[in-house]
Amino acid sequence: MTAMIEIRNLNKSFGGVTATDNVNLTVTKGELHAIIGPNGAGKSTLIAQLSGSLRPDSGTVIFKGRDITTKPAYTRARLGMTRSFQITSLVMEMSVLDNVALAVQARQGHSFRFLKPARNVSSIREDAMKMVRKLGLRKRADDPISALSHGEHRQMEIAIALASGAEMMLLDEPMAGLGPEESKLLIDFLLDLKGEKTILLIEHDMDAVFALADRISVLVYGKIIATGTPDEIRNNADVRHAYLGEE
Amino acid sequence: MKTLSKTGWLTFAVMLALAILPPVFFLTGNAFYLDLATRLVILGIAAVGLNLILGYGGLVSFGHAAFIGLGAYAVGIPSYHATWGGFDMVASYNGLFHIALAVGISALFALVTGAISLRTKGVYFIMITMAFGQMAFFLFQSLNVYNGDDGLTIDVRSELPFINLDKPLHLYLLSYVSLVVAMIVVKTIVNSRFGMVIKGAKGNNERMITLGYNTYIYRLTAYVISGAMCGYAGFLLGNFTTFISPDMMHWTRSGELMFMIILGGVSTVLGPVLGSSTFILLEEVLSSLTIYWHLPFGLMLIILVLFIRGGLMGLLIRKGR
Amino acid sequence: MDYTLLFIQTLNGVQLGLLLFLVASGLTLVFGILDFVNLAHGSIYMFGAFICASLTYYLGNFLWAVLVALPLTGLVGYFLERIVARHLYDKDHLDQVLATFGLILVLDTSAHLIWGPEGISVPLPAWLDGQVEIFAGAVIPTFRLLIIGTGLVVAGGLYWLVNFTRLGMLIRAGASNRTMVSALGIDISTLFALVFALGAMLAGLAGMLISPITEASIGMGGQIIITAFVVIIIGGIGSMKGAFVAAILIGLIDTLGRSFLDDIFQLFMSEAAAETSAPAVSAMMIYILMAIVLAFKPLGLFPPKVR
Question: Measured between CB atoms, does A104 come within 8 Å of chain B?
């Protein structure tokens, strides 16, 4: 079991509020690790520090054996880590296909190519189209993102993370705002990815978490109070007291 | 053969008119109209260049007149020294050298100011580009060697092979061809992989960064290209007016350039050309009617912003791009 | 070095800084609360000067003219907000910049229509027109001291406004968020108009104070607006404290640079070289300062809270 990402003694506070309190966590290669916790537990702050959009106050983040604590977000992405956003974050004025194509293009190294129209680069087009088909959005490939439904946006978030070819995906509440039908589709989609990709999943939907996760960590007030298999977490007294018991 | 879209036909028609009408006017003894056309075509090049970052890149630069001014001084200063002596390093009438200098200096200025400006975003970016533009303005205003505020008369135009810029028709045709090339360059860039990154960063910069794009470098590159295009337009403008002054760099000139783009339609290749044409023609007509022509001009701009989305291109092409 | 000259120029720098602060404070106030970029702020400064100039001739006294011109400039601001600005709050910054650029054309031409193309000089009452000897050799025009005094009083008033009132609380919170403002039970529409009018009065006051020195003229707004932008960029857009610090800093650097850079350059280059390069460098100095500040602090010296 090799570690994909290792978080050591990570701390972050805003003013007087501690958002990340000495977090230690290792996600192994191919694992689907879920982080649960009440609102305001600091889950999104943690993701932001892993993806590089926030700098931790102290601590280290090791990704594939490299210290990336001070690396900018685009470098982390190039090393093979990508994230999805809690609030849909796509290029709204571009088409479905172009959004996915941008992710594929990112995978191919730098884009200082000025002459050939991007739409004629077959290696990008074909990969992107494959992904769009997989999502069942083939007929809408040329529609602007803004014309899609909320559920389709959530799917696109995952699709773009996938298309970027990243080995590790940080998914920030992918099910947020989905109906039961749509959630189920997305859960199936993620189940297909299990083992193939390393996934750190933040999610409120407990059914989804327990159906998907290999291991679960519980984050309360910035602190990890427990880590274990779904069964262990279900039976953990601290967790039941601090979190599950309240619901 | 692919049939031309509505936008394609419009572009074709406008460019055809610009190719034929001004020379015909000139040859039939209406030199004034060729002058007008030369000015709008040259400003069209600058507007097309600015639109690369403003329209497609979403970077609202309010200092692009500085690049035009730098380009014009890249003609004026060498020509001045070639006539009056001094500053042997640049003293020359050679037009190719002028072009290289105009493009080089404005690209360098874009690189330095862009590197700082692009660290910021939104309102900060607007104001900083504006401030850097003003910096160039004040710099040339303080250079007494080149008459500071009073400006510099270009006694000898740039000398180019096969082209005689003293002949209005030659100057116009060079400007026209340059405009066509500028449009093709921008069109090619925005459709390329590089262009996709620029457009993507406009829509959602954070997403682009998390995909692995160092958007700062892409934007800086686009900023430099755009600045260099305006510098080239400045080279033409200097040869056209044969009088250059810091006033060309004043921030209100940058504002006018933006006005042209918004008037014509952002993020379209033809928009800036339509915009610069309409702007120059309106200016001509209104200023001949009243010295207070800025009043209706300003009102138009306000109305344009409040009510007309997409500018003239939006009005002419009803259904998207 | 001539210390008397240094003293006088320092006072001049402070005076310029305080005038800049008056303009910049209104700009930063409007931006901080309304999230609105107002290029036409300089035109209001110009209107203040012209209104004051006309009233000085009408009322026969500069000070009375200022007292009457202040509410009038506020009124100009109020109507500008009602007629134009409020329709732009929901637009992006590009639209705001362009529309207010259009507004400049309209306002400057209106001033041209009303007052004609020539500048109007503004006479001071005799007791303000004299000079004061602060110490042997250091003679300062009385009026400049009045400008400094007024600037400091207004700065004090704004300090109170920002730190001890509900409006100030909103400013400090970086409240461009309309829902938050309305959640506090304030009639936002009126509040915005009042904020705008206050900003206009501040800019107008600066214009009135400068008019006896330079005269009221058409182009004056376009010049000061950019420097005011540099001030609020360096200070941090939306920060009143930043605007004050940066305004004084720029006032000093600009004034001292123009008078002493020449001498400083002569320490390490020939006189001829210094005489050519000093004006060029001093013209660019505040922009170089801006570039340096931004290189280290992209959001300015006192960045406002995350919005």
Answer: no
Give the number of domains in chain A: 1
State the pLDDT at residue B117. Answer: 93
Structure-token pair, residue B288: 């001949």
Query: If pLDDT is split at 50, 70 and 90, which confidence band does C264 have?
Result: confident
pLDDT for the residue numbered C176 = 53
Residue B120 pLDDT class (50, 70, 90 cuts): confident
In a domain? residue B261: no
Q: Using 50, 70 and 90 to split pLDDT, how confident is the model at C307?
A: very low
Residue B56, chain A, CB below 8 Å: the answer is: no
Q: Where are the domains of chain C?
A: 3-218
Q: Residue type at B268?
A: T
- C262: exposed, middle or buried (Cβ count in 10 Å: 0-12, 13-18, 19+): middle
Give A63 or C270, the one with higher predicted confidence: A63
Touching check for B135 and chain C: CB below 8 Å? yes
Residue B14 counted as domain residue: no
Give ipTM to 2 decimals.
Answer: 0.88
Per-residue DSSP letter, B213: -
Higher per-residue pLDDT: B277 or B319 = B277
Which stretch of DSSP H or E encloses residue C141?
strand C138-141
Query: Which CATH number goes with the domain that contains A153?
Result: 3.40.50.300
Q: Which domain holds residue A148?
A: 3-246
Across the interface, do B207 and A83 touch by the CB < 8 Å criterion? no
Interface with A, mutate which of B189, B207, B217, B225 (most A CBs under 10 A) = B207
* Structural domain containing residue B41: 30-251
Q: Mutating which of B305, B306, B309 best tests the C interface, going by the most C Cβ atoms within 10 A?
A: B305
- Planar angle of CA B91, B95, B101, nearest 5 degrees: 65
Q: Which residues contact B171 (CB under 8 A, 6 or more apart)?
A: B38, B165, B236, B239, B240
Residues of A (43-82) whose Cβ lies below 8 Å from B: 51-53, 72-75, 77-78, 82
Contact A115 B199 (CB under 8 A): no
Is residue B7, in this structure, part of any structural domain at all?
A: no
- The tally of domains found in chain B comes to 1
